[in-house]
Amino acid sequence: MTEQDSIVLSEMRDGVLMVTLNRPKARNAMNGPMVTALQNILKDSAEDVSVRAIVLRGAGGTFCAGGDISDMAATAGDKTAIAAVNRRFGTLIEEANRFPKLLVTVLEGAAMGGGFGLACVSDVALATENCRFAMPEVAIGLIPAQIAPFVVQRIGLAQARYLALTGIAIDAGEAYRIGLIHHVETDASALEARLDTILAAARRAAPNAQQKTKTLVLDSPGTFGPDLLNQAAADFAEAITSPEGAEGTAAFVEKRLPSWAENGDRA
C-alpha cells in the first residue's frame, strides 16, 4: 500500500464509495498526497457506473482541520510554488463541486478551512451537534483563497463575510441555520441512521437523471435565463425518451420500483 493509498481509505458498499480521510494524528489536515488521492478517486468514480454516490468523512472523530501548513513550509518561501500548491487544492474543490454523482459529507469534530470548503461543495452535509466549523485563515495571517467563492455560493455573501473576516467558529446548530449543512444529529448512532436514510433515497434516483439535475442546479445561479431553460427543455426531452426515462415512467404507472432502485419503497 502506498502513502497515497493509506492517506485516503475507500470501500464500496452497495454502490456507495465510502471515502475516509486518514491522517487522524494531523486531524486529517490535507497535504499534497491527500489532494492527489481525492482527485483520483473523484475521477475514477465519475467514470465507474457501479458507483452511485460518494460518502466523504474523516478518521479519528474529526472531518478535516484544513490545509497542512507544513506543505507551504516545504516550498521554502517560493511564491510560485506556494501558489501552485494552493491552486491544486482549488482544483480539487472544483472537481468535487462538479462531481457528477451524489457527494455526501459526514462531519464530526471539526470542519475547518479546506474541510469547511469540502462541506460547502457537497450535495448533502450531515453533522453531529459537537462539530465545529470555521474559516480560521485570517487568524494566522492567511486568506481562504480557494474556498471563498464556494462558501459565498453556499451560504451567501453576508454570512461568508462574517465567518471569513472574523475567523470565528460556529457550532452545528448555527451551521444548519445558515444553510451550510442539512442535518444535525445528536450522536454517532443518529448520524449513521440519517446517512442510511439519505443513501436509501439516493439509490432510488435514476443515475443519468441525477447527473443532469445536478448540472442544471449548479448552472442555474450564474446563467438563469432563456438559454438555460432551452437547454433544460432539450435535456428533459432526451431524458424522457431514453431507456432510463422509459423504465422510470413505466415503473411509476405500474406502481413498482424501477430497475436501478436497490432498496426500500418509493419515497
UniProtKB/TrEMBL annotation:
One of its GO terms (molecular function) is catalytic activity. One of its GO terms (biological process) is isoprenoid catabolic process. It comes from the Bacteria. It holds the Pfam family ECH_1. InterPro entries: ClpP/crotonase-like_dom_sf, Enoyl-CoA_hydra/iso, Enoyl-CoA_hydra_C, Enoyl-CoA_Hydratase/Isomerase. SUPFAM superfamilies: ClpP/crotonase (SSF52096). Belongs to the enoyl-CoA hydratase/isomerase family. This is Isohexenylglutaconyl-CoA hydratase. It comes from Eilatimonas milleporae.
